[in-house]
Automatic annotation (TrEMBL):
Stretches assigned to the Nucleoside phosphorylase domain: 2-224
InterPro entries, A to Z: MTA_SAH_Nsdase, Nucleoside_phosphorylase_d, Nucleoside_phosphorylase_sf
EC numbers on record: 3.2.2.9
Domain of life of the native organism: Bacteria
Record keyword Transport present: no
Protein name per the record: adenosylhomocysteine nucleosidase
GO molecular function terms listed in the Swiss-Prot or TrEMBL record: adenosylhomocysteine nucleosidase activity; methylthioadenosine nucleosidase activity
Keywords of the record: Amino-acid biosynthesis, Hydrolase, Methionine biosynthesis
Cellular component aspect of the GO annotation: cytosol
Annotated pathway: Amino-acid biosynthesis; L-methionine biosynthesis via salvage pathway; S-methyl-5-thio-alpha-D-ribose 1-phosphate from S-methyl-5'-thioadenosine (hydrolase route): step 1/2
Pfam (any one): PNP_UDP_1
Length: 227
């Protein structure tokens, strides 16, 4: 079954409102909804903010029968061409806050694990097709950098750009990617840009997040008819 997850209410509420034949599955720390969206059986949930919540929720989704996972939400733009409202479809994901460099591991690398997790090619292609239908915004494919930090400085943006070649910064995607990859379950992350992760990120995020969360949601909706 297809699973769709976000971190916050704003990221899933529009899809939840359209969910037909809705059933609630209570799990420790998270509520999953099962139902039908655009004729497609889905699991839908809000996992909460950060990598731990994301990993826990992804694990519950897999146990509940998820065979593909789409993450929808907002992010801080890192690629210099990105503007508020634009969409990023993940090529791969890194955990930018992992630091075992003292033991000679590259920044972001967990010993014994891959340095980044590749999103599923088919889900990426379908997401891109659906994203091109969202009017007035640019869609890019790129690397998503996740960490338990809200990035709000030009130094922070610069680091993610030069060290990781990231297109955007958020707080969950790579944790979902790690869980899905271990289970062999395909995934993709779709993020709309709520801020540019610099000194004005806190103000922009509060202003634009509820508005741009709609863009990622439109992409997910567009994907449903194509999967
Ligand atoms: N989500 C939205 N904007 C973000 C930022 N600047 N840093 C981390 N996560 C975000």
């Amino acid at each position: 079954m297809l699973a769709i997850m976000g971190a916050m209410d704003e990221e899933i509420e529009l899809l939840l409102a359209e969910l037909q034949e809705r059933e609630t599955l209570e799990r420790p720390g998270v509520t999953l909804y099962r139902g039908v969206l655009e004729g497609v059986p889905v699991l839908l949930t809000k996992g909460g903010i950060g990598k731990v919540n994301a990993a826990m929720t992804a694990t519950h989704l897999l146990h509940a029968g998820a065979t593909r996972v789409i993450f929808t939400g907002v992010a801080g733009g890192v690629h210099p061409n990105l503007r508020v409202g634009d969409i990023v479809v993940s090529t791969d994901l890194v955990q930018h806050d992992v630091d075992v460099t003292a033991l000679n591991y590259a920044p972001g690398t967990i010993p014994g694990e891959t340095p980044c997790w590749a999103a599923d090619e088919h889900l990426r292609a379908v997401a891109l097709e659906a994203a091109r239908e969202v009017e007035g915004v640019q869609t890019v494919e790129g690397r998503v950098a996740s960490g338990d930090q809200f990035i709000a400085s030009s130094e922070g943006v610069q680091r993610l750009w030069t060290e990781f070649s990231a297109s955007c910064a958020e707080m969950e995607g790579a944790a979902v990617a790690q869980v899905c990859a271990k289970a062999g379950v395909p995934f993709v992350v779709i993020r709309s840009v709520s801020d540019t992760a610099d000194h004005s990120a806190n103000v922009d995020y509060r202003t634009f997040m509820p508005l741009v969360a709609r863009h990622a949601k439109q992409v997910v909706r567009g994907m449903l008819t194509r999967l």
